[in-house]
Amino acid sequence: MNTLIVLPILIPLVTLLLALLVRRHHAWVTAISLTGAVLLLLTGLYLVVIAAGGTVLSAQMGGWGAPYGISLVIDRLSAVMVAITGVIGLATLVYCLRQPMPADFLRDTHLFIQGLLAGICGAFITADVFNLYVWFEVLLIGSFALIALGGGERRLSGAMTYLVLNMLATLLFLLAAGLVYGATGTLNMGELALLFRAEQASDGAWLGVILMLVSFSIKAALFPLFGWLPASYHVAWTPVSALFAGLLTKVGVYALIRLVTLLWPEPGVIHTVLLWVACATMIIGVLGAAAQTEVRRILSFHIVSQVGYMVLGLALATPLALAGAVFYLIHHIVVKANLFFVGGIAARITGSERLAAMGGLYARTPLLAILFAIPALSLAGIPPLSGFWAKFVLVKASLDAGIWVAAFFALFTGVFTLLSMSKIWNESFLKAHPQPAMLGVTGQGPAGAWITVGVLAMITVSIGLGAGPVMEYAMAASAQLIEAPAYLQLLDGRRE
Amino acid sequence: MLASLLAIFINGLCAPLVYRAVPRYAGLLLALVPAACFAWFASQISAVAGGEILFESFAWVPLLDVAVTLRLDGLALLFALLISGIGTLIVMYSGAYLHDHPQLGRFYAYLLIFMMAMLGLVLADNLIVMFVFWELTSIASYLLISFNHEKSESRRAALQALLITGGGGLALLAGLVLLGTAAETWQFSQLQAGLVQAHGLFPAIMVLVLIGCFTKSAQFPFHLWLPNAMNAPTPVSAYLHSATMVKAGIYLLARLNPTLGGGFGWSTVLITLGALTALLGAVLAIRQYDLKRMLAFTTVAVLGQLTMLIGTNTSYGLQAFVLYLVAHSFYKGALFMAVGAIDHSTGTRDIRKLGGLFALMPLTGIAVGLAAFSNAGLPPFFGFIAKEFKYAGLMEMGAVGWSVTLVMILTNALLVAAAGLIFFKTFFGQRGHWEGQPHEVSPVMWAGPLLLAVGGFGLGAWNQWPETWLVNTAVQAAASGEVDVSLYLWGGITPAVLASVLTLGLGTMFYFRADSVRALARRLGSVWEFSGDLVWDKSLKRLFQFAGAVAGLFQHGSLRLHMALMTLIVSISVLGGLLLMKAQPFDGPALSAVSLPGLIGCLLALGGAAGAAFMGGRLALVASLGASGLGLALFFVSINAPDVALTQLMVETLTVVFLAMVLRRMRGVPASGNNTRAMNIWHAGVAMLFGLAVTLLIMTAVSQPLPGDLADWFLANSLPAGYGSNVVNVILVDFRAVDTLGEILVVAIAALAASTLLGAGQLPEGKPRGLPEFGSLMLRQGMRPLATILLVVSLAILWRGHNLPGGGFIGGLVAATGFTLLVVTFGRGIQRGLSRIAPPTIIGLGLACAVGAGLFGLGAQVAFMTGFWIEPFGVKLGTPLLFDVGVFLTVFGSVMHMVRNLIGRTA
Amino acid sequence: MEWIGAITAGLMSALGVWMMLDRHLMRVVLGIAVLGNAINLGVLTAGRYSGSEAAFTFAGEGALDAANPLPQALVLTAIVIGFALFVFALSVLKRTHELHGDKDTDGVSQVTEEPAPDEDAEQGHGQSQGGRE
Predict the structure, then answer these.
(1) For the CA atoms of A460, A464, A468, A469, what is the dihedral angle to 10 degrees?
(2) Which of B128, B177, B698 sits opposite A399 (nearest CB)?
(3) TM segments (chain C) (predicted)?
(4) Average pLDDT over residues B415-419
(5) How far is residue B440's CA from residue B2's CA, in Å, rounded to a whole number?
(6) Is B265 on the interface with A (CB under 8 A)?
(7) Is C2 on the interface with A (CB under 8 A)?
């Protein structure tokens, strides 16, 4: 258990340092990096199996008991997040294989992705506020490195926007962590939860936590703080933007879910605020997407809109709604990353990602059409794909809770998502290519890319058809979030 | 049942392969599976007619009570027979109709998947599973409408259909969820009308379900997608958009009629909108010249009438519903396929260009004739019985029914005229003008329509058979109570018969005066159809404009605006929270005393920051930033934080060096401020509000004594448990070592990433030299010893760090500063001279040390990062020290790496 | 003294934000550093300036009035992280300056809203940058 719990951090970290030591041999770097990603995925899956059995892992780093040392906890939500991180990490690395880019560029991509994965996994398993800040920084610098990778005017411009706005968010988080310590005398999430659940938190603690929620909201790209996302995601290299689209904002969502469920298991004022924010996020995001004319811009705005759904589940705070949020997280990460990947292949074949300059894919590559249709329909919530169940559960939870407006927004957003997806479909697949001679001159992309999108599409279909077990897992995860046994017991062994 | 669904689905998936293997016979081969399903369903007729209901079930998402439960009762069986039977004919027909289309394989796949979905829809007993299939039919319909995908009208029509039916589908989903909640079950078969209708959610359920059904079945005002859907190839129009899919809404209405029906609201809505749709469809149909569009609008008219009939809820009404449903599927399927054949053969569908085809295409002509008679409701066709019962059903309702009857007479008269136009104008009269030589189509193409048309005739003429075996149970399923079913062609002179005669008379009149009727309809209809489509286009355009405006709010591309808005929102939410909580930031307990050095430090830090914020010029900027950092370091010293102060000092030094090197290449930085005063005020306001928020937050946090015992515990345990006197360092390398691990990872990645950028586009390394500013010989001579001293000092700092101020961070930074000086002076070549190890390797080794220190714990089966100590020669050595060495190496390597690339670039 | 720290942190944050809103990118990046310093000060202040001595414990000594070491350790971590990020920001700034010249802040950020280039153009960027170790 001591080893298992740190593996999600350790594997990418060791992979990174090994790759760094052999960095001159590009083939080795690739091999090490892929091995690391596979191991991370296996670890994640094993963690899910353990967590599904009801075991919650927790450990005190350095053997120092809580709240003095740093606690790590892997419950059902953390386990599944690690597993999904493994999936997307591996998918991205495979997609990168044999891409027509300079060798150094690919090498750096591998290195930074491993760093990013370490940060993401760290954020998913830590139970310490300041440690969470540190992992956020790790994933942030990893994402900075990746978004700026390759240079170019446009990319650096986006990187600058991304950097400045995310720095603001991260500094706010630092201040919030400091304030929370100053007001509560602890950094341990379990102790914080006990304090808030016993309603003994001071004003200072509340304010610190509110600031923390605001900074998470920036990371999660919630309305009205999402401006940085559509201003930057579309300029990165395709696999990088896919990785970001799948995982990065979701770390923010995870942090929101974790903190809010820990501190306020019962619905309260925070939930009401989140509810309206979620509705606004869904609708504004989807409207923004409707106005876009490039594949990745459309998809970027949809990230925002979809984050709204997850936060909606959090805001409703019923067990079913939380399960819906968890289900949504799982489903969305796979689908969204996959759409970016498919978009990349489509852009490669058609020569552009501007819808006006695309076309002809439906006739030329039916396989890609299927591979696009699966995640796209899933995103729009068409049954029996994964997105349907996610949306269905959230709609049901809203209606059960009597919050009609949320159900209305959720469904309404669904129609618009369908509109956006059919827009991409119409323009880049159905329509004839404006310059048929240009179609496919740059090739179809390497096989790794196709394998990636194929496997991710299969995952989407499996989540949809096998929604039973996934839903059970999500439901159990939701119960665990509310009761938070592992977190609340962290301090049981406190040394007097 | 499940097997049939799976078989058709797999059949669909294999279709492209089959087509590729045997393109000529693919249609016939692929039709085998639906035909087998039809046979199976037909074999169940006797059992179902005997009142038996077949169930099949397996779990899907047990937690949500969603199980794939299939249930074959009378209504489901009727639909299943229509779907699989007509489907078989359509598959064969499409093989001939589209024989030269390159994407025919895909077409089969879509068609078969649709068939599977449609069958699933009518068989499903679970509300949610039904919905799953419901949405699948929409998607299949979308794919089929846009089959001629390079035509923009097809794409537009497909999108329109998808959005209308998809949007309605989502309303339906909400309705079903509410229905499930109200009825406390997800099974159709267990819904209880009493429970649902007494529930407070009943009105909402009804409205939402009706929206879903009306969009799917093209009821007014959602009818506009159906005529446009005629852009699809004709087999699709015949199958999806007249015989099956559009009846899904009708099916659901019938299915839910026992549960939701009976009340006044249900009947009113269904009858009113149904009748309106029917009349509208008929009026629009009569004015068309395109045969296919004409058929499409008559379909709208029929769908309206079916909806209306469910609304009547009378025994005749429901019988009429089932009869009409069957009759329509037969004749409309036949008509569509025949029109397709005509189109295929003559190349046109315009009535004005057609005529006298009977001699050329006799078999198709017979099919059209039979179908058209059934359509017109002439005895002894099935359509006739349907019409009789319809009138009887309406009249049962009393006064309202009579008035609706009048509308229906008009509607049906128009339909009679339309049927006449379709048959007579096409096949008789003057020979039309067409290109090419029309000929009778191939057998698969005339067999389908003929079979359906003869079937329509046969069912009517020998109506005992359908009554006993099909209609009875289907009617019972759609009715809330027992209904006495008996079909007859002739029931004496009843008001219904009179109405029929009137209809026929009017219809004949309309036919002979078709032109003037058309002119009138055109005037009436133009308002409807034209405006309908126009409104659609306009509202879609408006919507995109609105979306554009919304997106523009967040896509202005101005970093400063993003920044300002985000900061403002943060400040407002925090200050709002502060006010709402009525927090007391000024209620401080006794705080520590003010110290002079601290105050000076603060002022220096502030002054420096202000200088950097407002002054222009590169030097001033760097200098004031440095001063600010120094002030902060001084302040840290004053509050007894020597380690923090040292770190701040080293970081500040390096910052200034880096800044100077980067700024060398830039032109002067102007003083701050904006072009407009308003902008200045806005930014200043944003900034000050944020500053206020930060201050108040901190004050609130310190307004009460610090709870918890963390500080005391660290102080008490540092020496006995961590073997170090410097508590801050022990926290960093032992108590909270994982934080530090993350931190050096940040430093390492930052170094790697920054150097990639800094070294971008760099030429191969030239002659190693330093910065020209450092060209002085004296300086160069003095630099070497200085750097050596710094390196030694740094090692000392690292070593003593566990007990005295210092440690890996500070040591690494000091060492890096030394190297920075050397590199700045002598160029990057010096680095290679001093060390054969490249900085990234140092970083890697550093990380390896840090991680390795943690692994000892894992090896000993205890927690990661657990410290282990040995004491050789009285010196305490432990894994935390190894960890600190890792920190040292990482920080050192990182800074070196950055410096090297920075210099290499600028030199 | 905590109040003075809080006010200093607030004022420095305001200055940092003001700088981050500047039309010159250089000052925006420096603003990150200033804001970072302010926040570090804030974290330290929130942890109180208790104690009259630095946090060192030596064998044989009894209870001493030492400063709270935890916020110091946190801030130390934060300073180093802040420095790493600042250097990265500086390198982005430098490269941006090389590519964009003397555009103002919004002039640079507006480039992201330009239409996407064609595929080959994107690869061109890949070629032009030489990843260096």
Answers:
(1) 0
(2) B177
(3) 6-21, 28-50, 70-93
(4) 86
(5) 40
(6) no
(7) no
Entry field: residues in chain B: 907
State which amino acid sits at residue B34: P
The helix or strand, by DSSP H or E, that contains position A368, with its residue range, turns out to be: helix A366-379
Unique residue bearing structure tokens 């160029």 = B827
Residue B341: both structure tokens together: 């054949």
How do beta strands A57-60 and A71-74 pair? antiparallel
CA–CA distance, A339 with A342 (Å, rounded to integer): 5
Distance separating alpha carbons of residues B237 and B294, to the nearest angstrom: 12
A478 and A322 Cβ atoms separated by less than 8 Å: yes
Name the least confident of A411-425, B409-423, C49-63, C114-128. Answer: C114-128
The percentage of residues in chain A with a pLDDT greater than 90, rounded to a whole number, is 83
Is A126 in a helix, a strand, or coil?
strand
pLDDT of residue B251: 94
Q: Is A361 on the interface with B (CB under 8 A)?
A: no
Q: Is residue B808 classed as helix, strand or coil in its secondary structure?
A: helix
Helix (H, G, I), strand (E, B) or coil at B60: strand
Radius of gyration of chain A measured on its C-alpha atoms? 21
Calpha distance B895→B652 (Å, rounded): 13
pLDDT digits (tens, 9 = 90+) for B179-190: 999 998 999 988
How many other CB atoms sit within 10 Å of the CB of residue B512?
Answer: 12
What pLDDT sits at residue B193? 86
The two structure tokens encoding residue B529: 């159809």
Q: Give the DSSP H/E element, type plus range, for residue A179.
A: helix A153-184
Q: How many CB atoms lie within 10 A of CB B175?
A: 27
List of domains in chain C:
2-50+68-114 (1.10.287.3510)
Convert the pLDDT of each residue in A433-463 to its tens digit: 888 888 887 778 899 999 999 999 999 999 9
Least confident of B390-399, B642-651, B768-777: B768-777
Taking an 8 Å cut-off on Cβ atoms, the answer to whether C69 and B715 are in contact is: yes
Bridge partners, B71 (sequence order): B55
Query: What's the complex ipTM?
Result: 0.96
- What lies within 8 Å, CB to CB, of B163 at 6+ separation is A415, A418, A419, A422
Q: Per-residue confidence at B345, pLDDT binned at 50, 70, 90? A: confident
Interface B-C: count of C-beta contacts within 8 A: 326
Count CA atoms closer than 13 A to B70's CA, side-chain side.
19
The pLDDT tens digits for C47-83 are 888 877 888 877 766 556 888 999 999 999 999 999 9
Type of residue numbered B514: A
Q: Which of B721, B733, B735 is nearest to B849 (CA)?
A: B733
Smallest CA-to-CA distance from B750 within B867, B658, B863 is with B658
From residue B781, how far is each of A461, B679, B791, B822 by CA, in Å?
Answer: 70, 52, 17, 11
Residue B436: per-residue pLDDT: 66
Among B67-81, B464-478, B593-607, the least confident range: B464-478
Q: Which of B781, B784, B814 is nearest to B797 (CA)?
A: B814
The pLDDT score that the predictor gives to residue B494 is 78
pLDDT band at A389 (very low <50, low <70, confident <90, very high): very high
Closest CA to B641 of B572, B729, B509, B758: B729
Rounded to the nearest angstrom, the minimum Cα separation between A115 and chain B is: 7
Q: Report the residue from C35, C112, C129 with minimal CB separation from A232.
A: C112
- Within an 8 Å CB–CB cutoff, is residue B543 touching chain A? yes
Q: What is the DSSP string of A146-164?
A: HHHTT--HHHHHHHHHHHH
Cβ <8 Å between C42 and A157: no
- Which chain C residues are closer than 8 Å to A103 by Cβ? 131
What residues contact A168, with CB distance under 8 A and at least 6 apart? A218, B563, B566, B567, C20, C35
Angle A344-A345-A349 (CA atoms, 0-180°, nearest 5)? 120
Predicted pLDDT of residue B115: 93
